[in-house]
Design brief:
The chain is α/β, with parallel strands linked by helices. About 40% of the residues lie in helices and about 25% in strands.
């Protein structure tokens, strides 16, 4: 019976999978192409829902740099403000988070090999040895291309920068900016990291101008400059985010998880919560395959049953604001303010599970 699993990609999803397998007595070897895990993790923002993080089994406390209680959404002349009495999200140091996940995986018995890039020849060798291969190597997955999985059709280009010595007044809320003038098909954001540090970022559809140009356009906006609080830009990074689930994530002895599978919130581009949750599903499926002979295809069916509806709803919401444009989102924010939706979101909002919010909306009179 095969007991060793090959995981390509040392991001959070791959490392969570390795840890979960180790807890079940299955040795996983994680191959990370960079010299250390997390070296490129901070290309993406580190806003993660408090509720989602609590379910991943990670001791993330040392990676927290700030906690958020609310958000303001801006489009045209309108804004929607949402604030809760409880912490809704944490801003994490993504590099530290990856290092924590790596330590936890190793402690569970996994092997983490850094500075080793896996190519098609390596994958052919692993496959010929009968090993189970898991691609956890980004939306542009080498494993996904090698195994000829259906591609992820849409991507968002992002650009983010860190501003220091900021005099931003509100340090526990995030600002989101919707505008066709700079964020076509996505939005801009300003995230306080605390202690006078703010991250300013933008996403734009891959068919429009490049993300660096979109970022320059965004910086010309008065409201954006106010959100930065006069800080000085000290660092910047660009990345690409997959938008949309792959139609298949299992083929023979090969599985995909995390960004490689498209397990990403299309509304925000966040992949850690759903990717980590699906990694836990993958660990259970692999364990049952090895111990009871259950088909690996159960993984694909199970994660879609648990999280597919929510990921689909995120994609629908993304499609709406992408088509509506700034004027449409501005009208929507005005309507939501009239309906008092801001108050509802403050009390019942869920960053990850829109299906849960819909249920709460229709049941609010019964549970209030």
């Amino acid at each position: 019976m095969v007991k060793e699993i090959v995981i390509v990609g040392g991001g959070t999803s791959g490392l969570i999978l390795a840890k979960e397998l180790g807890k079940r007595g299955i040795v996983a070897t994680v191959f990370e192409s960079e010299k250390r895990v997390g070296i490129k993790a901070d290309k993406a923002s580190g806003i993660l829902s408090a509720s989602g993080l609590s379910k991943l089994g990670i001791d993330f406390s040392d990676a927290v740099v700030n906690s958020l209680y609310g958000a303001s959404l801006h489009a045209g002349r309108r804004s929607l403000h949402v604030r809760s009495e409880k912490v809704q999200a944490h801003v994490l140091d993504r590099i530290k988070l990856a290092e924590i996940c790596s330590r936890e995986a190793i402690d569970a018995g996994a092997k983490v090999i850094t500075g080793r890039r896996i190519g098609p020849e390596d994958l052919e060798q692993f496959s010929s040895e009968g090993k189970i291969i898991v691609g956890a190597d980004s939306g542009l997955s080498t494993v996904g291309r090698w195994a000829k999985f259906p591609p992820i059709e849409n991507h968002v280009l992002t650009f983010k920068a860190v501003f220091e010595k900021s005099e931003r007044l509100i340090e526990d809320e995030v600002d989101l900016f919707f505008s066709e003038r700079f964020a076509r098909g996505f939005f801009g954001w300003a995230v306080p990291y605390g202690k006078g540090t703010v991250e300013l970022g933008i996403g734009t559809s891959s068919g429009s101008w490049n993300s660096a140009e979109a970022f320059r356009r965004m910086l010309k906006e008065t409201s954006v400059r106010e959100a930065v609080g006069g800080g000085k830009m000290v660092d910047s990074k660009a990345s690409i985010i997959p938008i949309g689930m792959r139609s298949s994530t299992v083929k023979g002895n090969v599985l995909l998880v995390g960004d490689a599978a498209g397990q990403v919130k299309a509304t925000t581009g966040g992949g850690i919560i759903f990717g980590g949750a699906c990694a836990i599903v993958a660990a259970k499926s692999i364990s049952r395959h090895l111990e009871k002979g259950e088909p690996l295809e159960r993984y694909d069916k199970t994660w879609r049953k648990l999280y597919g509806n929510d990921l689909s709803m995120h994609k629908i919401i993304h499609a709406y604001y992408s088509r509506a444009g700034e004027a449409g989102v501005e009208r929507l924010l005005g309507l939501l303010n009239i309906l008092g939706i801001g108050n509802f979101l403050s009390k019942y909002g869920d960053m990850d599970r829109p299906s849960v919010m819909v249920k709460r909306f229709f049941l609010r009179d019964l549970v209030s």
